[in-house]
Amino acid sequence: MSNQETSLVDFADREKVLAISATLFRExxxxxxxxxxxxxxxxxxxxxxxxxxxxxxxxxxDMMRLAIERIISGIVDATVSxxxxxxxxxAAMRAHVNILMSGNDMVYVLxxxxxxxxxxxxxxxxxxxxxxxxxxxTILDTLKVKQYIREDIDINLIRLIGLGAVxxxxxxxxxxxxxxxxxxxxxIWQMLTRGVLADEHHxxxxxx
Amino acid sequence: MSNQETSLVDFADREKVLAISATLFRExxxxxxxxxxxxxxxxxxxxxxxxxxxxxxxxxxDMMRLAIERIISGIVDATVSxxxxxxxxxAAMRAHVNILMSGNDMVYVLxxxxxxxxxxxxxxxxxxxxxxxxxxxTILDTLKVKQYIREDIDINLIRLIGLGAVxxxxxxxxxxxxxxxxxxxxxIWQMLTRGVLADEHHxxxxxx
DNA sequence: GTCTATACTCTGATAGAC
DNA sequence: GTCTATCAGAGTATAGAC
Lengths: 208, 208
Description:
Chain A is mainly alpha-helical. Chain A is about 70% helix and about 0% strand. Chain A binds a DNA duplex through helix 3.
């Protein structure tokens, strides 16, 4: 465990190593994946892997750093050109679900394996995760300011609840299932915004 | 690893051992908790712990069995005497959040440590988790049948999304935070049912 | 930069005296 | 039922030849 103030990692096949490790971490979990497995899957020997990362923890930290970059730029790309605030939120949800579930195991690891981080690495990564959540907050802020959202609603709670619904998708989504990722993103968006009640009960519920 | 068809476990201090183990698993994760730690925390030596559970996995499996019993009976207790279907859903959400976050680490372990299960134990526990989700499904079914829920909504998705929001609370809830567990449960319930849009936008959103 | 070989620690699991 | 003592193996990490 060498939690030195981890500086930037730089070597030729960094992304390849991280991508392969991420797949293993996702399938088996960080603790249940050995360095021998990782190096074997990368086509190198443990010594060579050690040349890149002095400690196993460092792989995880570097992976999470990259994952945060990826998810942030993914969401920004998907939303930056959308003007309507409600559609912007929808685009963000779709993008988040898609990035989490298809193509990028690092993001999954970021969201589900943070308990494996020790010491300073933990606080550092958590701070970067906050940076991501902050972007969501700006989207929701706009909705609030433009009075799309009811006065009595705390948008911090919306963010936490919305991200919960969205992240949990990773525990139940099946590629061969009934719904596409976009459909799932839309469903969460719809529920969050419109709710699920039929009109007459929606009116009645306001009085509760 | 002795994943024999694990039969009922029975010894005097079973619950004490499981409760202590659950706290450790919650704090550090299953893999990062050693049998030596567990036995020490239980005030016994590794040999004595081994007398109760032949393998580490067996502790986890037995814990999850008990956790499922607890969460099911907790939700049933909280909802069985509530007649109004919407209030029943609200009571269930409150109960789930409360059980998950206060007093029962086993339930947390059940929800977040299932990836540590191997082989037949995995499928068995998953089957029992389905039993729990099925109870939610009956609550939602009633809402649908009584036409509280719009025709175009799939209640399977509601269940998955709702449970996601509720379970994810475990990753961000702080006891000293702004909201009580009941308030959080209510907020999720409200969002799921009513949505968060202001009235004029709610009307407009129907056309999307 | 990459490999071989290995050091050292800790793990889960066990055997057997009491 | 509980303890002591120990096993075999896996884990991370390292040293040093090439």
